[in-house]
């Protein structure tokens, strides 16, 4: 049920996602599976993120993280810290978001896994830009780009559209328009690849109701008409 919910959420079918994960929560409560319950909370948190309810997302993800920390489940902490960082960034709590991204990077080093590392590095780059540290932001995003080993990241990036949108924004804001637009085009290709095979109704929701996809396509449309 939780995996079904996550699939619905990826397609911007948020009502269906919420219904499925609420059923999963009930079952995990009944069998006293605390970590399963925490994973359900994280899925609910990601749904709230997509709906840009950052307060609800922060609260749900914070609860999930506390359970995973108590259980000493570091792989689950890793993923949850990243989603929590997004919520904190959405709320404008930049120092706290930067701390959360740092926790992701510490865990990736400790666990010897690249999962979420580039996503977290891009998050730190956004925080640097917000804090007026443009040169450091450029260095950070370029380091992330160097770590990508394929044009259509599979497991390398957990949030590829958000990453390419970030890279575009930082490089354009600091004067590298050509590279910024190239990365915007790569982000478009990622979206088109993900949307292939969806029905028309699914594709419409996917393209219009997920914030980072909507933002990237909007910027791409603006570039094409300018």
Give a quick summary of the entry.
The chain has 226 residues and is an all-alpha fold. The protein contains twelve helices and no strands. The termini are far apart.
Strand content: under 5%
* Radius of gyration over all CA atoms, rounded: 18 Å
Low-confidence parts lasting 5 or more residues at pLDDT below 50? none
In whole angstroms, how far apart are the ends? 45 Å
Number of strand segments: 0
Which percent bin holds the helix content?
over 70%
Structural class by secondary-structure content: mainly alpha
| Helix and strand element order | HHHHHHHHHHHH
Q: In one word, what is the shape?
A: globular
**How many H/I helical runs?**
12
Described by strand count, sense and barrel closure, the largest sheet is: none
Average pLDDT works out at 93
Protein described:
This protein is mostly helical and 226 residues long. The protein contains twelve helices and no strands. It has helices at 2-10, 14-30, 34-50, 54-70, 74-90, 94-111, 117-130, 134-147, 160-173, 177-195, 200-209, 211-225. Helix 9 (160-173) packs antiparallel against helix 10. The longest helix is centred in the C-terminal third of the chain and has 19 residues, at 177-195. The chain is globular, with a radius of gyration of 18 Å.
Task: List its traits.
226 residues; single chain; 12 helices
Give a topology summary.
Elements: H1 2-10, H2 14-30, H3 34-50, H4 54-70, H5 74-90, H6 94-111, H7 117-130, H8 134-147, H9 160-173, H10 177-195, H11 200-209, H12 211-225
